[in-house]
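Researcher: We plan to redesign the surface later, but first we want a full-length starting point. Tokens attached.
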């Protein structure tokens, strides 16, 4: 009961923080938005933003892990704050490498927290998807691309996952074609409503599979 109350309190506090940040962003008041992040990271996570930027994701996750149990809500809180931090950097002329590092660290935290699907989906999914979208704009290694693809697929963002697949195919990555074929075959097992919500209707799934296999009957 105590853990659930703590989690709900943190979610409410984060909702208030994000509302403040959004209001400042709308007015282009990036310094004020930054101050909100600085205060929130100290109050909610007991961490300075400078420390957060300096530490690797694994080290941060370890700080939120006790007796082999990771505090998912803290991972999600930090991941979301890092997305907001990256957007501030984008709008204040910071170096691309620093922006990329923030999005990468955020994704690693979201990925760790994805064990709690419901919590992520209810409160933070838009931020996680935005983070993946941003990372996909960079030239990234195959392993990270596959992690992003898996994340999209896990939350039924099928069209976004397909875009990553095409990047892998264009780069002639090893096993990309086989992975893509299996991806489409998996989607054929989904109902039409799920495919439409994922922005990849059945006829497009079939078309993609035919292009890869050359077979007119994908079933």
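Model: Full-length starting sequence:
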């Amino acid at each position: 009961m105590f853990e659930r109350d703590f989690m709900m309190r943190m979610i409410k506090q984060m909702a208030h923080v994000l509302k403040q940040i959004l209001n400042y962003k709308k007015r282009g008041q990036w310094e004020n938005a930054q101050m909100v992040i600085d205060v929130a990271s100290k109050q909610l996570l007991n961490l300075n933003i400078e420390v957060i930027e300096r530490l690797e994701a694994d080290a941060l996750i370890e700080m939120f892990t006790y007796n082999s149990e990771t505090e998912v809500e803290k991972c999600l809180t930090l991941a979301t704050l890092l997305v907001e931090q990256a957007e501030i950097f984008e709008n204040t002329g910071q170096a691309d490498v620093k922006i990329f590092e923030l999005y990468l660290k955020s994704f690693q935290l979201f990925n760790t927290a994805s064990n709690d699907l419901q919590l992520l989906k209810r409160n933070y999914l838009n931020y996680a998807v935005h983070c993946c979208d941003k990372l996909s704009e960079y030239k990234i290694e195959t392993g990270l691309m596959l992690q992003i693809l898996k994340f999209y697929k896990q939350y039924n963002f099928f069209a976004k996952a397909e875009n990553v697949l095409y990047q892998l195919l264009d780069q002639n990555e090893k096993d990309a074609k086989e992975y893509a074929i299996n991806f489409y075959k998996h989607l054929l097992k989904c109902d039409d409503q799920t495919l439409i919500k994922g922005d990849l209707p059945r006829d497009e799934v079939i078309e993609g599979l035919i292009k890869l296999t050359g077979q007119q009957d994908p079933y």
